[in-house]
Structure formats: C-alpha cells, structure tokens
Design goal:
Helices cover 38% and strands 17% of the residues.
Length: 486
C-alpha cells in the first residue's frame, strides 16, 4: 500500500473512532442531561404518550392521566384541583413540572425510577408500553379538608403530622391555584395561565408549609424552655424565673418589654409554667441570655433546625443564627431576630414534645404500586430524626403546653373531653404590616395522635398573643378534631 492510501486509511479509521466515541458519549453519558433539557420536547412527547401514574389520597386520585383523542394520548387531570394544588404541583407540556410531587416523584410517575427496572424489562419482553407507578399518600382527607376550610381566605399554611411516625396528615397552603389550567393541551391557554400564576405577588404556587420560612415568634419559646430544662437552668414547671416589665439588654440602650408593659409576676418573678401560659417575653429573653447562643442553637438543631429534609419535596432548612451576642440571643429566645422556620419544622417541635422527646422523620408517601398493582414500596418504617430532649423534659414541657391551652393564651384550642397541648405565637416581620399569627399543638396530650402547626400571615396583633390565640388556635383545633372525632 502506497503512502497516500495509507494516510487516507488512517484518517478514515480516526473518523470512525471519533464517530463511535461521540455516539457513545451521547447515548450513555449525555443522555440524561439531554433528556432533561427544556428545549427537548421529544422526551416530553414520549412521556405524554405513556400513561403517567396516579397520586392517591385515601384511594381517590388527586392527580391522574386520562386518555384523550389527540397526539398526546393522555391528559393530566386534578380532580380536587385547588385543595391539593401545592401537594401535587402540575404536569404541563408548556411549562414542565417544576413543583410538588409531579416534580419530586417524576421518575416514579413516568415509570423510569430504578425501583421499576424489573417492570421495564418485563414490558420490553412483552412489548407492553411502560406506565408509571401509582403513589399513595399519608394525608388524611378529613384533616386536609378541615385545614382548608378553617384557614379560609387567609394567607398562610397548616401542616399536621402523626407524632409517633412522622406521617404527614395535612398539608395546606393558601392562596391556592388550579393546576388543570396548566395541564391543558390548549398550549396558548396554558401559557397564559402560567404567566398569571408566575406573576401573582401572592405566589400561589408556593407550598408555604415547606418552602417558606418565617420568624416563629413565641412558639419558639417551647424550644427555649426545653433548652433551659435540658441544661439545668430550671428543674421543673414551678421553677422561678425572672419576669420584669422590661428586660435590660447589655450592649444597647434598648430593652425587651413584656406584652402589656407589666411584670409577669410579683417581685418581677414568675414560674416557668406561668411564663409560658402568658408568653412572658422577659422571662424567656432572660433564659436565652443565661443559656447563650450556642446552647440555644444546639437545642434547636436537635429538633431539626438546620437539617435538609425531603418528603419527598425538598423542605427549606430552618435556622438559628450563629455567633449571637446577648441582645440577639434574648430576641432569638422569643423567636425573633433572625430565627427562621417552616411550619413543618414547628410541627416537628410540637411532635417531638408529644413523642417523649423523639422527633420522627416526616414523610408524605405511604405506598408505591406498579401498573399491575404490585407493591413496590410499602408504608415506610418510622425513622427517628433525633432525640431532641429527654422523656422527662418532654413530659414537663407537655404539661406546660397543656396549661397554655387550659389556663393561658391558647384557650381557643380546647376540645371537649380531650387534653390539648399548645403554644401561641406572634411574629414581627414587617413594621408596616400586622405580625404573623402562629399556633402549634398536639392532642390528646396523653396519647398523641396528631401534631399541628398553623401560621396566618399578618393575622396577629402587634405586641400581643391575641392573634395566635384568636386566629390560629381555632384552625389547629378544627384539624385536630377532624382526626380525633372520626
């Protein structure tokens, strides 16, 4: 073979090698990223042409794919639309599926999850079209409906848990939206619906139970009380604590006042239980300064602050700032300064106290089934997230929270014949707006079945627990009654 032919042969061989490398790279290494590209409509079309799995609550679909007579073959439908809008999210050819379970559980719903590998092989052998898995949720429809109705036109969130397992019983966020408008095959209409939703300043697509962080206000005093007991600053509910009308804050001329400008007890002293009943700011500010920022922060971390959770939707981490000086730790101890938390996190605080100090990992999916109704993933075994406090501390704080409902600011959460534990909260967030109204609770106190956190945005009264007690507590009561009275 002469030299020119030899060189040409080498060039052709190199070109074949390059082609082989490029095709291998595309098929095996870039396939996932290329499939996920928003501009790649072929993947979306392929997904639309197979039946996407349903999402069920108590056996009834809250998201399902129904056959239609067009090129897409299936239309995603949401029978209870607004009630579960932030839970399901939406599945849209025009927008994608960036929210809720439609996004977080996409691999299961499309049938592409690793756990469905055997089913895909079987489908390949039999020539059957792969369909998605069905997901059953832990939500109690009565609790969900009660939370939705009780929250009404208010902007805010309600989340409820089984404190013994971590199963999420209700997840409601207001305002809501209709995901059916986004899943429509009338793409011009779907695009307009998305633009309206995206540009709405109230952010209806936001799941406020897990995606929005707020100052917790006085509900955080449960964490401060637990920290004081765990660190030996107090020994029980009747321990004496400072309760002046104003607490002097070092390093500043500013003072921390009580709600009504009066001492919380005679001689500027009160008991720990009475301080929680009336939500005495100066008592908990003083305890915070005695504890110091690191001990307060460490106690919050044991309840789950700082953890990155998924349920399977990602939960925004709650936080207590580091390196707090004395005035900052006093403000943090009453749930202000830069303490930020999701409603789910505050439900975990209540649930941890209810469950003898054990905080269970929250979860939303109870079971996954294949298209043949074979169980792929059964009810998860409850997993402990942390032992936040000792059983003794949990018992003391529980009894104090019962006293808040029986004798203090949480009276509107009372349920006839049931011992209810709770804590009100008012959280300053914008001087031009009313504070947020909070309430956390659990019941029955002696055998807890449900723990609830409620926030009503700008639903409180400045420097008063009235909002938490008058606005948020009845919402929590309605949700607890829905579960306990079934």
């Amino acid at each position: 073979m002469n030299a020119p032919v030899r060189r040409l042969s080498v060039v052709i061989a190199l070109l074949f090698v390059a082609l082989l490398v490029a095709s291998t790279s595309i098929q095996f290494f870039q396939a996932q990223s290329l499939a996920a590209m928003p501009a790649n409509k072929r993947t979306v079309l392929d997904n639309y042409s197979r039946q996407r799995g349903s999402i069920l609550v108590a056996g009834k679909p809250i998201a399902e794919s129904v056959p239609v007579d067009d090129q897409y073959k299936y239309l995603r439908r949401y029978p209870m639309a607004e009630l579960y809008s932030q839970v399901t999210g939406f599945y849209s050819f025009e927008v994608g599926n960036p929210f809720g379970l439609e996004h977080a559980a996409d691999a299961l719903l499309t049938g592409q999850a690793d756990t469905l590998f055997v089913q895909r092989i079987t489908d390949l052998i039999t020539g059957r079209r792969t369909t998605g898995a069905t997901i059953e949720l832990t939500i109690d429809p009565r609790a969900q409906q009660a939370a939705d109705e009780a929250l009404g036109p208010s902007r805010g969130a309600v989340v409820a848990l089984n404190p013994k397992t971590g199963a999420i019983l209700a997840m409601v966020s207001h305002p809501q939206y209709n995901p059916n408008a986004l899943s429509s095959h009338d793409f011009r209409s779907a695009a307009k619906a998305w633009e309206k939703l995206r540009d709405d300043p109230a952010k209806p697509f936001l799941n406020r139970t897990i995606e929005q962080v707020y100052p917790p206000g006085s509900t955080f005093k449960v964490v401060t009380a637990a920290a004081a007991l765990e660190n030996g600053l107090v020994t029980g509910a009747q321990s004496q604590v400072p309760g002046p009308a104003q607490l002097d804050l070092p390093l500043t001329d500013v003072t921390l006042p009580t709600e009504n400008g009066l001492p919380c007890g005679p001689g500027n002293r009160t008991t720990l239980v009475h301080a929680l009943e009336i939500s005495c700011n100066t008592a908990f500010g003083a305890l915070g300064m005695q504890l110091g920022g690191e001990k307060l922060r460490a106690q919050a971390a044991k309840f789950g602050f700082g953890d990155t959770l998924s349920v399977p939707m990602r939960v925004a981490p709650s936080s207590v700032p580091a390196d707090l000086n004395a005035p900052q730790v006093a403000q943090s101890a009453i749930g202000q300064y830069d303490v930020r938390t999701t409603p789910l996190q505050m439900a975990l605080v209540a649930a941890g106290i209810a469950n003898q100090g054990r905080v269970m990992t929250p979860y939303l999916v109870s079971q996954v089934r294949s298209a043949d109704l074979d169980v792929i993933s059964d009810e998860p075994k409850p997993q402990e997230l942390s032992q936040a406090v000792s059983p003794r501390t949990a018992e003391i704080v529980k009894d104090m929270m019962v006293s808040v409902v029986d004798h203090g600011s949480g009276a509107r959460a009372q349920i006839s014949g049931v011992r209810v534990a709770g804590k009100t909260g008012t959280a300053q967030h914008d001087l031009s707006k009313a504070p947020h109204a909070w309430f956390i609770s659990f019941a029955p106190a002696d055998d807890p079945q449900i723990a609830v956190a409620v926030i009503v945005e700008s639903g409180g009264v400045t420097h008063s627990e009235v909002g938490g007690g008058r606005v948020a507590a009845p919402i929590a009561r309605a949700v607890m009654e829905a579960v306990l009275r079934r």
